[in-house]
Amino acid sequence: MSKTYNIAVVGATGAVGETMLSILAERAFPVGDVYAVASSRSIGKRVAFGNRYLVVEDLADFDFSKADIGLFSAGASVSKEYAPKAADSGCIVVDNTSQFRYDDEIPLVVPEVNPEAIALYRKHGIIANPNCSTIQMVVALKPIYDAVGIERINVCTYQAVSGTGKEAMEELIKQTAQLLNGKPIEVTVYPKQIAFNALPQIDVFLDNGYTKEEMKMVWETRKILQDDAIQVNPTAVRIPVFYGHSEAIHIETKEKITSSQAHTLLGKAPGITVVDTREAGGFPTAVTESAGNDAVFVGRIREDISHLRGLDLWVVADNVRKGAALNSIQIAEILAKNHI
Ligand code: A2P
Predict the structure, then answer these.
(1) Tens of pLDDT along 217-243?
(2) 165 CB under 6 A from ligand 1?
(3) What is the radius of gyration, based on Cα positions, of the chain?
(4) Is the shortest distance between the CB of 114 and ligand 1 below 6 Å?
(5) Neighbouring C-beta atoms of residue 340, cutoff 10 Å
(6) How many CB atoms sit inside 10 A of residue 233's CB?
C-alpha cells in the first residue's frame, strides 16, 4: 500500500480551514486520518470532509504527534503558541498566518515560484504560506521576472472580504440587506461601511504611512524572489466582493518585453490562465473566473504608454483557494512527494 499522511487542519471551522478540507478531499493527496481542530467554542461541531463529517477537536488538548502535517489557519497568535509545539511533536506545520513569514530561518513558499525553498523546513519544522495578495502577484510575475527581470512593481489591490474571515462576510451581507431595506447599518469588523464602498485600509497603519497588508507585499515579494533590490509600491483596498482578489499591476522590467511576448510567456506558465481578448468582457474577474477555481487569471496585458519598459497586467485569483488553502496543500503535496 502506498504511504499516507495524517493531516490536522487547525482553524477547521473558518473560511480557509473549510476550504482546506474540501480541497484535501477533492485532490489526489494521499490522506490517512484527517483531524479538524478549532477553539473550545467549536468542540463537538461537525465540518464536511468529502462525503463525510469530522467532529471538531479542541486545539488546547490536541495531540500533534498523531499528525504528519498541520495546516494552520487560526490566526497569528494561535500559530505563535501552537505551531512550535506541533513541530516539536514531529508534525510539520504549513502556516497560513503572518507569524513566521519574515523569519529568515523559515521558508516562505509559492510552489510555482520557489518550491526549492521547502527543503529549508527542517530547521524549525515550519513552512510559511504567503499573504493572499502576494501569492497571486508573484505567480503572475515570475515568468516575466525570469525572462527579462523586474526593477519595480506598482500594484493596487481590490480585495474580497473572505480574506478577513467569516465575520467579515457576514458583515457585508448584513450591511447590504440593511441598506437595501432603508435601515441604519452596523459597522463592527471594518473601520467604515464595506457594503457599496471601497476601503483603502487593510490591516493596521505603519509608521511610513503604508498599511501592514501593503508592506507584507513588499517584504514577501523580496523574500520569495530572493531579491532585496526589487521595488514594490502597493495600495491595498478592500471592496464588497465575497471571493476573489483583483490586482492592477504595473511593472518596470530590466529589458523590454512586448505585450504579445508576455501573453505567450504567461500562457505557457504553470498555474496561470490568460484571458485577454481585448473586446468587451475579454478579461477575467473575481466573480466570473476566479471564485471557486484554482488558477491565477491574467488579462489586460498591455505595454505602458508612459514608460519604455513598462507593462500592465490585471490579475485575479480566489484568495481563499490559491491565496491560502490551495497554496498550503500544494506545499503539503511537495513535502509528501519529496521530503517525508
Ligand atoms: P472557532 O470557530 O472555534 O472560533 P475565520 O478566519 O473564518 O474567522 O476562522 C478562524 C478560525 O480559527 C476558526 O476555525 C476558529 O475556530 C479558529 N480559531 C480562532 N481562535 C482560535 C483559538 N484560540 N484556538 C483554536 N482555534 C481558533
Answers:
(1) 999 999 999 999 999 999 999 999 999
(2) yes
(3) 20
(4) no
(5) 12
(6) 14
Q: Whose CA is nearest to atom 27 of ligand 1?
A: 39
91 in active site: no
Cα dist from 230 to 137, 147, 150, 168, 303, whole Å: 14, 15, 7, 33, 20
**Ligand 1 atom showing the smallest separation from residue 13 Cα:** 14
Read off the C-alpha cell for 238.
478592500
Q: Confidence band (pLDDT; 50, 70, 90) for 1? A: low
Which amino acid, one-letter code, is at 225?
Answer: L
pLDDT, one tens digit per residue, over 245-275 is: 999 999 999 999 999 999 999 999 999 999 9
Instruction: Answer whether 58 contacts ligand 1 (Cβ < 6 A).
Output: no
Give me the residues paired with residue 139 across strands.
none
Record the cell numbers describing residue 179, joined without a space.
441598506
Best residue among 18, 37, 39 to mutate for probing ligand 1's pocket (most ligand atoms within 8 Å of CB) is 39
- The per-residue pLDDT for range 50-73, each reduced to its tens digit, is 999 999 999 999 999 999 999 999
